[in-house]
Amino acid sequence: MNELSRQNQDYLVEEIIAFCEKWGMWKDVSIHFKDLCYADRYYKDDEAKELFEEVGGKLSPRCYCYKTDVKLKENSAFKMLFDSTLAEVFGMGVYEMDWDDISLEGKLYIARNTNVLEENGYDEDDYKVYLDKTEFDSYEEYKEMLLEENDKEFIKFLETVSLGFINLDVKVADHIEEEFVDILDRYGLWYEPQDVCELNCYYSDDFDDKKVKPAEWVVKKLTLN
């Protein structure tokens, strides 16, 4: 059967980890291929450490890899097991997350495409604390800057914000799911939820490992390592 090469498998896992970390979701997640499992958990026993160095040493330091023998469904490339966060996104179209766990890239998207700052209790008085340290004279002037997407200043602001636990509208969950689907598309895969905490990813009918298109950044990263 034509299936993902080990190299493309590593590329895919690294992209999924980056995707999960962007949205604060790389927690209690494991990715199971037929002979290897990639997980966020830290395996402390000596055997697991050796296996990690052997088969997963080039991957993200937040990913630990160990040998496994799992049964996958017919035509399945891998399956994912995860906690309620990913389950809510893929199963219920809901995204609830601790603001501090989200990457700056994720925060930028959320703040520009939702009213998360206002809806979660961050109002004009809160902005004033930040405005005192910038060239902005008013809340409205600052909001105008946000619309112009001045990343440098916006990131400075986001680094000072702590909103706590946030509950976002459906379109953010839809966007997150679309990002995941886009990753799978480039690898010739598609997914379907299995249950509330599991999904299976399958090979498309025209899958060809030679036509897989990993992101340029992941090829560069794993090649340099």
Largest sheet: 6 strands, antiparallel
Strand content: 15-25%
Estimated radius of gyration: 20 Å
Roughly how many Å apart are the termini? Answer: 30 Å
Q: Which residues form runs of ≥5 with pLDDT under 50? A: none
Strand order of the largest sheet: 3-2-1-4-8-7
Order of helices and strands: HEEHEEHEHHHHHEHEEH
For the structure shown, list the relevant keywords.
225 residues; alpha+beta; six-stranded antiparallel sheet; two-stranded antiparallel ribbon; elongated
Walk me through this protein's architecture.
The chain has helices at 6-22, 46-55, 84-92, 104-113, 116-119, 124-131, 139-147, 151-158, 170-186, 216-224; strands at residues 30-32, 36-39, 64-67, 76-81, 95-98, 165-168, 189-195, 198-203. By secondary structure, it is of the alpha+beta class. The strands form two sheets. The protein has a six-stranded antiparallel β-sheet with strand order 3-2-1-4-8-7. A two-stranded antiparallel ribbon has the order 5-6. β1 (30-32) and β2 form a beta hairpin.
Short structural summary:
It contains 10 helices and 8 strands.
Mind sketching the topology for me?
Elements: H1 6-22, E1 30-32, E2 36-39, H2 46-55, E3 64-67, E4 76-81, H3 84-92, E5 95-98, H4 104-113, H5 116-119, H6 124-131, H7 139-147, H8 151-158, E6 165-168, H9 170-186, E7 189-195, E8 198-203, H10 216-224
Antiparallel strand pairs: 1-2, 1-4, 2-3, 4-8, 5-6, 7-8
Helix pairs in contact: 1-9
